[in-house]
Amino acid sequence: MSEATREGHRPGRLGVGIVGAGRVGAVLGSALRAAGHAVVGASAVSEESRDRIEVLLPGVPVLSVEEVVERAELVLLTVPDDVLPDLVAGMAELGHWQAGQIVLHTSGRFGADVLAPARRAGAIPLAIHPAMTFTGTSVDLSRLVGCPFAVSAPGPVLPIAQALVVEIGGEPVVLPEAVRPLYHAALAHGANHLVTLVTQATRVLQAAGVEEPGQMLTPLLTAALEGALRQGEAHLTGPVVRGDVGTVRDHVAALAALAAEDPAQADVPETYRALARVTTQRAVTAGRLREAPAQALLDLLASPAGPGGAALPVAAPAHPAPVADTPTDPVLVRTREELVGALRGQVGRRAVVMTMGALHEGHLDLVRAARERAEHVVVTIFVNPLQFAPGEDFEAYPRDLAGDLARLAEVGADVVFAPEPAEVYPQGDPVVQLDPGPMGAVLEGRTRPTHFAGVLTVVNKLLHLVRPDVALFGEKDAQQLALVRAMVRDLDMGVEVVGVPIRRDADGLALSSRNAYLSADERRSALALSAALRAGAAAGAGGPAEVLAAAAAVLDAAPGVRLDYLALVDPDTLAVLDDDAQGAGLLAVAAWVGNTRLIDNVAVTLGVPPQSVPGETDQP
Ligand SMILES: Nc1ncnc2c1ncn2[C@@H]1O[C@H](COP(=O)(O)OP(=O)(O)OP(=O)(O)O)[C@@H](O)[C@H]1O
Ligand SMILES: CC(C)(CO)[C@@H](O)C(=O)[O-]
Ligand code: BAL
């Protein structure tokens, strides 16, 4: 039995062993030594750790873990959190823990329960976490003085933990086992994320040409930190709490421009927007900001376009926000995290409609069909760079998030997920992409060879992120629909795929976001596509050759239309149909009208007279 238990709360002089002489282990070992304990050995794997032992713990032998545990009365487990449970259990299995031995770990997230295997062998389990960051040098020793330590241990031995902390100059703060993860999350959020924030601020100042950003930031950040620690939100200063919308708009614009220029700063605008949104909401709660300027700020901060961007509803915060959406507005979410929050608590079936925005009635048909099939409808709006080849219209593609949200409010979407490319592809282009196979190489795939790999990859990702029961796609993109069905079938993706008929204008033109590119003359020329398809379908009874000839004749005669392809294919496999094919076919067309590439298609019944039209009869 050790002196610690004999003498009650005073550990006395102990033989200390250190398992894992990383920064924390070496510094705490050195502090315990200074407090009069003897360090009997330390285990160290890396060269760095051995060097550290030489400097901070001169004369201490480097031993194996087993030897350290065997020789020590107080074992300091200063290993990474994830290693700790297995290490403790492994040593127990091998029978190394000793009765009366103090086993102390310094993980923030765990309490003393993780040491249960040692406790069962009669050891005294203590969890002692310094709320401090370490460099692994002697500088840290002075930081221990007055440093708070979270202490968790079974009641009877808690005083031993407290006494050890006091010996090395720290301030013990007793924490119940159950709150350790929350405690540790708070420290990581405050300290680690502060480093990210300050680093971003430093880099942005550098970009602004400030030579000594550290010097410029130190007095202000020190004052802000002291103020926040003393007064919380009551200490908030700056444009958000002043309701200075114009200034925040300028900030967002300047940061977006910087991010566009310098990919290393690409994460700054979103961080700024996210923190400014939260700051706005907290300022309202704290009674420091009125609702009108708060809503203006939230609208601005939710917009990807930033300055000049129209007002937008904002993501539902985790707790009810003082500035709320009207009940019919869909909740707009921009990040994966916000999406998870918006989906949390949904009960019943969920449908997804994936779009690239610039929504029209065709898209709204998809949402209406979704409403009929599910309790919750999620619409994604994402112009997916991966499905555009260089030279295609990715940059020019119409974007109108504010208009889209207004339209979606009318048909009743619940959640709109409109992420930035960096949110969908945080590592840039994905290393692993889906191969659409031969079905992706025909029709659209001949002109856009990389297109369907990009489509299927993003559809797959969005299905994983949204986790719907049903996904709806338009028949206007018939090849896309066929490929999504094939992917879901071949990869056992377990989502129902529903096709929705093509919505057309009264004159037959299929609705498409790209119709916005057309001049009035071009729009007239574009009618040739649907007219050709109608002519082809009407010739179905005559078989494939007649269908193609009838459609081609219309296209040939059309001014301003440059054909890419006209094809009659199997609707499921997309294989070109033989001349003697009967039954269902898909007649698909793609053509340029001016610089705009349009697609359209129609179902054709081959070898059977066309369906009767009311008022006519097919009977002889
Ligand atoms: N006219 C339409 N009728 C029915 N569904 C449509 C129509 N247009 C698009 N969709 C469907 O809406 C979904 C999203 O398509 P997308 O956002 O690409 O719109 P789009 O109008 O087809 O744009 P573009 O033709 O410029 O690519 C797809 O499933 C697509 O098939
Ligand atoms: C399915 C889709 C949203 C994937 O980007 C897109 O191809 C579209 O809009 O059809
Ligand atoms: N509607 C298909 C998407 C695209 O053309 O990229």
Automatic annotation (TrEMBL):
<feature type="domain" description="Putative oxidoreductase/dehydrogenase Rossmann-like">
    <location>
        <begin position="6"/>
        <end position="130"/>
    </location>
</feature>
<dbReference type="InterPro" id="IPR003721">
    <property type="entry name" value="Pantoate_ligase"/>
</dbReference>
<dbReference type="InterPro" id="IPR019665">
    <property type="entry name" value="OxRdtase/DH_put_Rossmann_dom"/>
</dbReference>
<feature type="binding site">
    <location>
        <position position="480"/>
    </location>
    <ligand>
        <name>(R)-pantoate</name>
    </ligand>
</feature>
<dbReference type="InterPro" id="IPR042176">
    <property type="entry name" value="Pantoate_ligase_C"/>
</dbReference>
<dbReference type="InterPro" id="IPR036291">
    <property type="entry name" value="NAD(P)-bd_dom_sf"/>
</dbReference>
<keyword id="KW-0067">ATP-binding</keyword>
<dbReference type="GO" id="GO:0004592">
    <property type="term" value="F:pantoate-beta-alanine ligase activity"/>
</dbReference>
<feature type="binding site">
    <location>
        <position position="387"/>
    </location>
    <ligand>
        <name>(R)-pantoate</name>
    </ligand>
</feature>
<dbReference type="InterPro" id="IPR004821">
    <property type="entry name" value="Cyt_trans-like"/>
</dbReference>
<feature type="binding site">
    <location>
        <begin position="474"/>
        <end position="477"/>
    </location>
    <ligand>
        <name>ATP</name>
    </ligand>
</feature>
<dbReference type="InterPro" id="IPR008927">
    <property type="entry name" value="6-PGluconate_DH-like_C_sf"/>
</dbReference>
<protein>
    <recommendedName>
        <fullName>Pantothenate synthetase</fullName>
        <ecNumber>6.3.2.1</ecNumber>
    </recommendedName>
</protein>
<comment type="function">
    <text>Catalyzes the condensation of pantoate with beta-alanine in an ATP-dependent reaction via a pantoyl-adenylate intermediate.</text>
</comment>
<feature type="binding site">
    <location>
        <position position="387"/>
    </location>
    <ligand>
        <name>beta-alanine</name>
    </ligand>
</feature>
<feature type="active site" description="Proton donor">
    <location>
        <position position="363"/>
    </location>
</feature>
<keyword id="KW-0436">Ligase</keyword>
<comment type="pathway">
    <text>Cofactor biosynthesis; (R)-pantothenate biosynthesis; (R)-pantothenate from (R)-pantoate and beta-alanine: step 1/1.</text>
</comment>
<dbReference type="InterPro" id="IPR014729">
    <property type="entry name" value="Rossmann-like_a/b/a_fold"/>
</dbReference>
<dbReference type="Pfam" id="PF10727">
    <property type="entry name" value="Rossmann-like"/>
</dbReference>
<feature type="domain" description="DUF2520">
    <location>
        <begin position="147"/>
        <end position="277"/>
    </location>
</feature>
<feature type="binding site">
    <location>
        <begin position="511"/>
        <end position="514"/>
    </location>
    <ligand>
        <name>ATP</name>
    </ligand>
</feature>
<comment type="similarity">
    <text>Belongs to the pantothenate synthetase family.</text>
</comment>
<keyword id="KW-0963">Cytoplasm</keyword>
<dbReference type="InterPro" id="IPR018931">
    <property type="entry name" value="DUF2520"/>
</dbReference>
<dbReference type="Pfam" id="PF02569">
    <property type="entry name" value="Pantoate_ligase"/>
</dbReference>
<dbReference type="InterPro" id="IPR037108">
    <property type="entry name" value="TM1727-like_C_sf"/>
</dbReference>
<dbReference type="Pfam" id="PF10728">
    <property type="entry name" value="DUF2520"/>
</dbReference>
<feature type="binding site">
    <location>
        <begin position="356"/>
        <end position="363"/>
    </location>
    <ligand>
        <name>ATP</name>
    </ligand>
</feature>
<keyword id="KW-0566">Pantothenate biosynthesis</keyword>
<keyword id="KW-0547">Nucleotide-binding</keyword>
<comment type="subunit">
    <text>Homodimer.</text>
</comment>
